[in-house]
Every structure is written in C-alpha cells, then in structure tokens.
C-alpha cells in the first residue's frame, strides 16, 4: 500500500542564510570549551561571547549593525574570567545576564541605541556560587527572577530587583548540571546532569517531582527542555555513541513516549523550541546543519520535517524570540549561526503565495510584559505568559529601567537605589541636599541623552555620506 503523507503546514519549511552584507563579520567568537550557545538574540540586539584577554567579554550589537565589526567596537567586559553563558531578559530588551568562570553572575543594562563605550559596571553582581557559573536563565513570566547554575552542582534563583539569592537548590544534583529549562509558566524546572539523570524540580517547594535515571545511556552531555504541554524533550547519546532524541511524560518517566536514534556525531545537540508551532530545531555543536521536527499528539509524536545544511560548522547559535520575526515574509524562526570569525543569520520560512497575515502560522505569542512580580512568584503564585498578537508586526515599547534596591543589613541606614545608568545616589539626611542631588542627576542625564542623540544623528549622516560615496564610486 502507498503510504499517505502526513498533513502538516510545516512540511515545506525551508532555511536560507542571508547575503554576506547582512552578516556580522570579523568577530572573534569565544573558544572556551563549554557547551552553551555563545549567542543570545532579541528584537533589538544580538549578543555574542568573544575571545578576550585578561577576563571575559561579550559583544552587544544592534541588529542593524551588520557588516565588518571594528576591533575597537565597545564590549561588555566586567567579568574577570571567561563568560560562559548569556541570556536576554524576556521582559526588558535592554537587560542581559551573564555567567562566568569567575563564579559570579552579572546583570547589565544596555543603552537604548547600543554601546558607545565599553561597559564595565553591571547594574548588579550576584555572588553565591563557589565554582564557575555555566548557566543563566530568566524566568519566563515573573519580572526580575533569574536562575543560575554552576559547577558547584547548585542552582540559585535570584530576585534581581533586590540582588538577593532567594532559593538555593544545592543538594539535588550529585554531578555537573548540563542544562536547566523553565516550563511554560515558570512553576517547574527540568535539568539534565552528568549523572545521566533528568530531573523535574519544583524550585519553591525545593523537591524533585520526577526523575529518570539513564534517560540516555551514553556518557556525553544531554539536554532537557520543557514543552508547552508539560512534556519533557531530551537529546543525548546511546551507549554506542549514537545521538538520540526522546520525549517524556513527567507523570510517568519509566518509558519515553518516543525515542529516536539520529546519527553518530559527537557534537552536543542544542534544542531550540517554538511553543507556538510545536517545532523543535536541533543544532549540533560542530555540525553544519539544523534539523527540525514537529511534535504532535499522534504516533510517532516526533515527526522529522527537514534539514537545513550549509558548508561551515557552527560554533554556537542564537535564536530570535517570535516577536522579532518578519511576519510579512512568513518567517517562523531566525537563527544566528556563529562561525569562527562571523555571525550569520539564517531565516526559516513557510512558503505561502499570499502576502496577507497568516494567522495559522502566528497564533498569539508571549509578549514582553511580565505576568507576575518577583515577590508574587516567590510567594507561590503562577501565571501563564501574557500573549500579544503579531498581526500588525511587533513594535518595541519603551523599556523600564532596571532598578536594584538593595536590602540593607544595617537597619539604621536607609536603602540606596541603583539607577539604570549605574549612578548610585545615597540619600542625604536633609531633604534639601537630596533635592539638589536629584536636580543635578537630572541635568547629567539630560546631557547624556543629548550627547547620545547627537551621536545617533552623526551616525546617520555618516552612513548617508558613505552611500553617496558608494554610488559615485560605482
């Protein structure tokens, strides 16, 4: 009998790398031996961990700043050891967290138009790990809640708004943690560890809800991520070093819902998941391809769609949130592939004849508004992401500045506020002095803003002149 082809609107998704002039060139991508993605993207900026002498640094480039990146381009360089992982805050496109070999987590506020000077002072430094910090992950729905995991086998959940560690899960993992993933509403986390166990953990109750020993039998690193329906998707290796992917139900982890063998390559498979379309993209470190699969309720549950292949191997990969995509071109995913010396965007598209908005491809997606405050989440509340429609495209709003209000150990002293521009203002005892200070501060901020505006205008003028020169030369 002839096999009927499965119906799916994503069967013909195809990937395409952008032209050379739309790549980010001459970037010294980090060579540190760590299995993170080295790249983080949001609708405003692309951040890339780079090689840096005497410490750790990463680049933050506005998306439109393509072409050759000058060696003197400013970096974010406050860490004293190599940076291992970076993650943009889902609720503020100018705030990024970084974890480093120097055992600290730092949270940075990037100026609205990108960096004009190197940034060395973070808004807040989070100290609590005793070994290097290889994983940072923001809470999907609660404002200012950040998770970090280190090689001390501990997971710490921070309230960035106060700079405090509120939960410390230090006795749940006996070996190195490979990755951590929040579920859709941020009530649970799942982890993959070197002891070959996949664990589902309730962080606020500090208890393991479910675990599976030897989820993948091989010794090489695993990855585990939550799907929107609460199932867990894992990648790993078989005993024969074949790469595998598996789907698990946390309510019954005895047997996987599905288990597929893939190939015998030794690169770790990094999974990127789109909850709106139920597509998982697998990018192997050192591979030159991206495979993608659709997850459904019908057997075999994980359906292979296609592979995007290129010539160059990938050192890392960034994944754009849905609100940063071009809905008019039926773009359903955009990756930022790291080569040795450049970053190349790759666009995944569903071919459609119509130019109209395709509402079946773009259901309402998670927007930038936080559903909960940090305190509410720590008290036990849960909330799904606040969804937005992409029908008229996503217009980034004005971001709130990240303010850190330190809880003071000495109750006699009033607390000091940290402003976004990293100027801390100690409160004076007399009101007049504080009023004067605030007036001065406003003056300085106005001056900074006017200087930034001037720089922007000059940039535009320069690019116009360059275009005129190019036309004359042509």
Automatic annotation (TrEMBL):
<keyword id="KW-0677">Repeat</keyword>
<dbReference type="Pfam" id="PF16300">
    <property type="entry name" value="WD40_4"/>
</dbReference>
<dbReference type="InterPro" id="IPR015048">
    <property type="entry name" value="DUF1899"/>
</dbReference>
<dbReference type="GO" id="GO:0030027">
    <property type="term" value="C:lamellipodium"/>
</dbReference>
<dbReference type="InterPro" id="IPR036322">
    <property type="entry name" value="WD40_repeat_dom_sf"/>
</dbReference>
<dbReference type="InterPro" id="IPR019775">
    <property type="entry name" value="WD40_repeat_CS"/>
</dbReference>
<comment type="similarity">
    <text>Belongs to the WD repeat coronin family.</text>
</comment>
<feature type="repeat" description="WD">
    <location>
        <begin position="170"/>
        <end position="211"/>
    </location>
</feature>
<keyword id="KW-0175">Coiled coil</keyword>
<dbReference type="GO" id="GO:0051129">
    <property type="term" value="P:negative regulation of cellular component organization"/>
</dbReference>
<keyword id="KW-0853">WD repeat</keyword>
<dbReference type="InterPro" id="IPR001680">
    <property type="entry name" value="WD40_rpt"/>
</dbReference>
<dbReference type="InterPro" id="IPR015943">
    <property type="entry name" value="WD40/YVTN_repeat-like_dom_sf"/>
</dbReference>
<dbReference type="Pfam" id="PF08953">
    <property type="entry name" value="DUF1899"/>
</dbReference>
<feature type="repeat" description="WD">
    <location>
        <begin position="76"/>
        <end position="118"/>
    </location>
</feature>
<dbReference type="InterPro" id="IPR015505">
    <property type="entry name" value="Coronin"/>
</dbReference>
<dbReference type="GO" id="GO:0051015">
    <property type="term" value="F:actin filament binding"/>
</dbReference>
<feature type="repeat" description="WD">
    <location>
        <begin position="126"/>
        <end position="168"/>
    </location>
</feature>
<feature type="domain" description="DUF1899">
    <location>
        <begin position="3"/>
        <end position="67"/>
    </location>
</feature>
<dbReference type="GO" id="GO:0007015">
    <property type="term" value="P:actin filament organization"/>
</dbReference>
<dbReference type="GO" id="GO:0001755">
    <property type="term" value="P:neural crest cell migration"/>
</dbReference>
<dbReference type="Pfam" id="PF00400">
    <property type="entry name" value="WD40"/>
</dbReference>
<protein>
    <recommendedName>
        <fullName>Coronin</fullName>
    </recommendedName>
</protein>
């Amino acid at each position: 009998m002839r096999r009927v082809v499965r119906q799916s609107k994503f069967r013909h998704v195809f990937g395409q790398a952008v032209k050379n002039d739309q790549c980010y060139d001459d970037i010294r991508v980090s060579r540190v031996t760590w299995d993170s993605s080295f790249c983080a993207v949001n609708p405003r900026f692309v951040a890339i961990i780079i090689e840096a002498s005497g410490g750790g640094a990463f680049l933050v480039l506005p998306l439109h700043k393509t072409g050759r990146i000058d060696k003197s381009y400013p970096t974010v360089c406050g860490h004293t050891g190599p940076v291992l992982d970076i993650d943009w805050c889902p609720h503020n496109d100018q705030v990024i967290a970084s974890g480093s070999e120097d055992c600290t987590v730092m949270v940075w506020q990037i100026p609205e138009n990108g960096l004009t000077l190197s940034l060395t002072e973070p808004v807040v430094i989070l100290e609590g790990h005793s070994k290097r910090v290889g994983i940072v992950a923001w809470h999907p729905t609660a404002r200012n809640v950040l998770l970090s995991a280190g090689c001390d086998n501990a997971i710490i959940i921070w309230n960035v708004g106060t700079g405090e560690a509120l939960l410390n899960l230090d006795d749940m993992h006996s070996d190195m943690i490979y990755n951590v993933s929040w579920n859709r509403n941020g009530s649970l986390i799942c982890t993959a560890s070197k002891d070959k166990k996949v664990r589902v953990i309730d962080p606020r109750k500090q208890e393991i809800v479910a675990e599976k020993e030897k989820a993948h039998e091989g010794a090489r690193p695993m990855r585990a991520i939550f799907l929107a329906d609460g199932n867990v998707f894992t990648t790993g290796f078989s005993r024969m070093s074949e790469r595998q992917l598996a789907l698990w139900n946390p309510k019954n982890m005895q047997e996987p819902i599905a288990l597929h063998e893939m190939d015998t390559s030794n690169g770790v498979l990094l999974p990127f998941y789109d909850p709106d379309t139920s597509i998982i993209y697998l990018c192997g470190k050192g591979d030159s391809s991206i495979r993608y699969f659709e997850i459904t309720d019908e057997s075999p549950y994980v359906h292979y769609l296609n592979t995007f292949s290129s010539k160059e191997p990938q050192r890392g990969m960034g994944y754009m949130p849905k609100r940063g995509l071009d809905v008019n071109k039926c773009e359903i995913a955009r990756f930022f592939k790291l080569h040795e010396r450049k970053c190349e965007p790759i666009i995944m598209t569903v071919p459609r004849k119509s130019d109209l908005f395709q509402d079946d491809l773009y259901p309402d997606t998670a927007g930038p508004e936080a559903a909960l405050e940090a305190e509410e989440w720590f008290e036990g509340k849960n909330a799904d992401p606040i969804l937005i429609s992409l029908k008229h495209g996503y217009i980034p709003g004005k971001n709130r500045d990240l303010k850190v209000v330190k809880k003071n150990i000495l109750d006699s002293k009033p607390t000091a506020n940290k402003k976004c521009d990293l100027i801390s203002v100690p409160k004076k005892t007399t009101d007049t002095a504080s009023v004067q200070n605030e007036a001065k501060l406003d003056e300085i901020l106005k001056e900074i803003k006017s200087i930034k505006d001037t720089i922007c205008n000059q940039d535009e003028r320069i690019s116009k002149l360059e275009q005129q020169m190019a036309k004359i030369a042509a």
